[in-house]
């Protein structure tokens, strides 16, 4: 079966968002344009890593261009998107691997999120990574301007930090009813 690629160049909207309450949140990337919406599920750590790497890559682009680039140093306030995810959130796939690239010729950031590939550890023929691009797993590919990428990264980092507050002793997340803190010898905090 041919690979399904959800391609947005550029999207009208590309955001990270959540569904659920802190501690039970599901994290999504969502791209949309002209009534077409694609949502993919991923882990909180993947959202954080993606946002951090985007910031690092854009900072490097600005540094190398010595100021002669369209990439802003910070997210433009007029582009900030704080709206919730478009409803209904219909998961296309769970993200396994992600990749970032900067296309210098058009001054665009390319983000690729590929579906998680389930392998059978007991099957020796099912342990090799999938290398056939034509028949590979589904993928979300998005091309963003530098400004739109900065806005995405800002929102994603805020989203990740908006969860449950950390315990001041062990840094694990606190539930509303407290938690058993390993630094307090198992006493509820």
Question: Which keywords apply here?
Answer:
189 residues, alpha/beta, seven-stranded mixed beta sheet, 2 helices, 7 strands
Short summary:
This protein is α/β, with parallel strands linked by helices and 189 residues long. The chain has helices spanning 44-65, 146-161, and strands at 5-8, 13-19, 26-33, 36-42, 91-103, 108-115, 139-145.
Count up the helices.
2
Mean pLDDT across residues: 87
What is the strand arrangement across the widest sheet? Answer: 1-7-6-5-4-3-2
Class by SSE composition:
alpha/beta
How many extended strands?
A: 7
- The topology string of helices and strands comes to EEEEHEEEH
Shape: globular
Radius of gyration: 19 Å
Content of β-strand: 25-35%
Largest sheet: 7 strands, mixed
Measured distance between first and last alpha carbons: 53 Å
* Low-pLDDT windows of residues: none
Helix content: 10-25%
Q: What does this entry look like structurally?
A:
With 189 residues, the chain is of the alpha/beta class. The protein is 20% helix and 29% strand. It is built from two helices and seven strands. Helix 1 runs antiparallel to helix 2. The radius of gyration is 19 Å and the shape is globular. The chain starts with a strand and ends in a 28-residue tail after the last helix.
What's the helix and strand layout?
Layout: E1 5-8, E2 13-19, E3 26-33, E4 36-42, H1 44-65, E5 91-103, E6 108-115, E7 139-145, H2 146-161
Parallel strand pairs: 1-7, 4-5
Antiparallel strand pairs: 2-3, 3-4, 5-6, 6-7
């Amino acid at each position: 079966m041919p690979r399904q690629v959800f391609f947005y160049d550029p999207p009208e909207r590309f955001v990270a968002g959540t569904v659920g309450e802190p501690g039970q949140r599901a994290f999504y990337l969502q791209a949309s344009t002209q009534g077409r919406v694609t949502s993919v599920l991923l882990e909180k750590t993947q959202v954080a890593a993606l946002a951090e790497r985007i910031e690092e890559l854009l900072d490097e682009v600005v540094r190398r261009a010595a100021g002669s680039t369209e990439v802003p140093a910070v997210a433009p306030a007029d582009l900030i998107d704080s709206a919730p995810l478009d409803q209904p959130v219909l998961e296309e796939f769970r993200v396994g691997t992600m990749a970032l690239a900067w296309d210098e010729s058009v001054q665009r950031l390319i983000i690729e999120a590929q579906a998680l590939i389930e392998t059978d550890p007991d099957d020796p023929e099912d342990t090799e990574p999938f290398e056939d691009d034509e028949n590979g797993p589904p993928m979300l590919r998005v091309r963003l301007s530098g400004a739109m990428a900065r806005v995405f990264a800002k929102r994603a980092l805020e989203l990740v930090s908006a969860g449950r507050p950390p315990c001041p002793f062990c840094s694990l997340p606190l539930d509303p009813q407290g938690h058993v803190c390993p630094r307090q010898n198992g006493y509820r905090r």
